[in-house]
Amino acid sequence: MVLCLVLFEGLAQAVPYDRPKIQLPEPRGYVSDHAQVIDGDWKERIRSVCQDLERKTGVEMVVVTVPTIKPFGSANEFATALYEKWGIGSTQQEHGVMVLVAVQERQAAITLGRQMLPVITPAVMNQVAHEDLQPSIELGHFGEGLYLTVVALATPAQEVRVGAIPNIHFKGLGFWLALFTAIGALSFFWWISRPDLRHPYRRIQKGEYWGTGQGGFGGNFGGFGGGTGGEGWK
Questions:
Q1: pLDDT in tens, 64-80
Q2: Residue 82: which region, alpha, beta or left (left: phi > 0; alpha: psi -120 to 50)?
Q3: What's the predicted TM-score (pTM) here?
Q4: What's the rounded Cα separation, in Å, for the pair 95 and 41?
């Protein structure tokens, strides 16, 4: 599931349509400048933001420029088809973001995987479009506009952690591992402290038992168990 916002045409509603049978462009990394409108310096800045975002959060964000969206009817349709073909964010559990600009039509679209909707809302996308992307595109400053756009989108996306597991799971696991380890250690020391169990006949005959330290060690274990239990329930 993806959400695509068409800029400069208003917020479009998703409707079924027959996709034209055309050859879609191939990906070129974080920045696929098929229209060749992004200067090298801006391209490196955009790539750096996208790379840093994916390294820190797992979110995959890409920028695409195309000369035209034809024969598609809108940037929305083109961006959705391209997003799905490239599989943006698919390995990140639909944590993907695509920013597309069509130079000839002066249209742009922001496409999101469904897991990004809680942090990059339609309100956020509209604000980014009208404050950063639209003015730059109208002036032909594609590189600057796209750089400002990815920075603005990466800011809320920093809250995402792809594949993150709540810490309580690890704490719970740590509690049980510590508990079983402590029980195992207690059983071992108790066993070696009782030679009568290892060599029952000889020790029983001599009346030798090593039980004097068992109670103290058991008390220490009780304190350890309490501390571990408290950590596990935090």
A1: 999 999 999 999 999 99
A2: alpha
A3: 0.64
A4: 27
